[in-house]
Amino acid sequence: MNSIEGIDLNLLRVFKAIVEERSLTRAGERLSLSQPAVSHCLGKLRTLFDDPLFVRTRTGMQPTTAALEIAAIVSKALDSVQFALRYAQRFEPLVSARTFRLSVSDAGELAYLPAIWSALQQAAPNVRLGVSPLPVDEIEEALRCSNIDFAVGNLPTLKPRTRNLPLFDETYVCITRKRKGLPVGRTISLPALQKARHVQVSSAEHSHHAIDAAFVQEGVKRHVVLEVPHFVALPDVLAATDWYATVPHHLAAVFAQDYPLRIYEFPVDLPRAAVTLHWHENFESDEANVWMRQLLTDVIQGFDKRWA
C-alpha cells in the first residue's frame, strides 16, 4: 500500500496537466518542464497507480478508464491544497501583489474596467488584474480551479452552480450618430426603427441573444447591414455612417462621453439583463476573495447609480 509520506505531490500536478492537455509536450510547457522530465514523472505515476494511465494515439495521449476515475479525485485534492495555502496567507491590500482574474464580456470591459482599475490603484496599488473572458459553460470549472476568481455578467444558467450577488438590471437602448433629420423625442418610432440600417454585435453573452429573440417576438424586423463580434469597434463605425445599433444603456452612456451620439429608448418592451457577480463556494470565506468582491460590488453598483 502506498503511503502519502513517500509521494511527491508534484507528480499529481503533472498527472492533471497530462489529463487536461492530452499531450506530454503541452503539459510540460504548462508546468515549465522538459518533455523528458514529464515522461519520467509519467513513469513514476504508472508505477504508483499500477496502471498505464495514458495510451498514445494519433489524437494524443488518451487516458485509461482508471486515469479518468483518478483525475476527478486528484483535481479536487489539488484544489483543496491550493485553497489551504491561500487561506493561510493574510491578505493586506496595501502591500499585496496578488493577481485577481475576472471573466467579463467585452461590453463589461469597456464599461467597468476603468473604474475597477482606478479603485484598485487607490486601495491596493500592487494588486494586478487579469481579464479572461470565457464561454459560460467553462466558467464554473474555472472558478472552482482558481483559473479565474470572479465572473461578471448576465449569466442566468450559472446562478444555481455558484455563489452570486445581483449588481443591477441592465436595459438596452438604440444609438446613432447625432445629425440633422433624426427622429425627434426620447423614443424611436417603430417605422423609423425598421427603416434604419443596423449594426449587429454578435456577443456570446445571454442578454444579447435574449434581446434579439425579443425583437423577433415583437415582430420587429431590423435591417442589419454589418455584424461585428465585439462592441469596441462600434463607436467608430457609427461615427462614419448613419447606422444604428442596440447596446446596453450603461455602455451607451460611456460611448457618449467621447462620441456625439443620440440615444433612443425602444418602442417595444425588451427584457432587462440581470448583471451578477459570481464566485465559487470554495472561496466564500477567503480573505482576499471577500475583499475583492466587495470592491467589485461597490464599483459596479456605483457605476450603475452614476449612469441611472
Automatic annotation (TrEMBL):
Q: Which GO terms describe its molecular function?
A: DNA binding; DNA-binding transcription factor activity
Please indicate if the UniProt record lists DNA-binding as a keyword: yes
> What Pfam families does the record point to?
HTH_1, LysR_substrate
Q: Which PROSITE patterns match?
A: HTH_LYSR
- What keywords would UniProt list here? DNA-binding, Transcription, Transcription regulation
In which family does this protein belong, per the annotation? Answer: Belongs to the LysR transcriptional regulatory family.
- What's the protein called, per UniProt? Nodulation protein D 2
This protein's species is: Pandoraea sputorum
